[in-house]
Amino acid sequence: MSIVKCPGCGGEVEMFSTDPMAICEACGKTVFNEANTCIRYCIHAEECWGKELCDEFRRCVEKEEVSARSDTD
Fold it and tell me: CA angle at residue 42 from 40 to 47, to 5 degrees?
């Protein structure tokens, strides 16, 4: 098990290495396990994880990328 920092509130989220994601108990944000997330690159990800989880992951990644770009502007 590892502790991951929530990108929403900065809280600690416990996550097992096999978990694709967890929910932050402090703010309710979905926190993805970057070490175990093939959703980013695998063409079969929706078959394994389901469309809903894949869409949620992509939305979160997009928000983080937009936020990172605006931080550098």
Answer: 110
Query: So where are the chain's domains?
Result: 2-72
* Spatial contact of 29 and 23, defined as CB atoms under 8 Å apart: yes
Q: Which residue has the higher pLDDT, 58 or 44?
A: 44
The structure's pTM equals 0.59
Convert the chain into a string of H (helix), E (strand) and C (coil).
CEEEECCCCCCEEEECCCCCEEECCCCCCEEECHHHCHHHCCCCHHHHHCHHHHHHHHHHHHHHHHHHHHHHC
Q: 59 vs 11, 18, 27, 32, CA distance in Å?
A: 20, 21, 17, 11
